[in-house]
Amino acid sequence: MTDFGPRVEILDGYVASSHPPLYDPVSHAYFDLVPESEPDPTVVVLPNPDSRGRGQRIAIIDTGLMAGHPLVGQRVVRYVDFTSEGPYDNHGHGTAVALVLIKTAPEADLISVKCIDSSGEGSPQALIQALDWVRSEEPESTLVNISAGINRKRWLLFPCDGTCDVCQATQRLCERGNEVIVAAGNLPEETLCPAKLGSKWLISIGGWDARRRYGKGTINLDIPRYRAVPIVPRVEPAHP
Known about the structure:
The chain is of the alpha/beta class. The protein has a single domain (10-232), classed as Rossmann fold, CATH 3.40.50.
């Protein structure tokens, strides 16, 4: 059945089309994301792994992940798709989320749960399927990230109070013991579902930049602007 209601959208505090490209099909180069406030490295060198994040399993419910990305693909241990497009990231948002996560947990295992397609949208049913799949099929996942949301209404008129089907699917996941982090919204002061579920169950992240505040979250953070920097392999010194 075709869903003519609101769609699930990616949430990042600014227009998705402003994302720097993470893959150049001409040169076949992959890119990392570096905050614009940091000194400009001309390239990113693949880091040596360390113990941060070792033993952690992070489920990323998003647009999928790029299997060929040298910083992301090697960390993915499982792919699942609820869009009928195939499991890999044809948009870039999910891979961008993963790049941010692995800055602090480079040895964590990533679970790619795709419920948003290459247009940056998805159905609420696909998001619910993704949430229920993580709950039933990934009992060892310690963290779930959802940088997506939907404007659900009660009786088609009133703002959701945490009781819609998307929020309830998220609550079921939280009740199992998962730590769930969700983005609050893309519009000033407007919080979407499942962030509407509230701080009793999850951590919602609102953000602001120089222009406006996006969503109202449990935690509100500055939204850094990123630039894309090409990745090159680490070259080990030759031994005599």
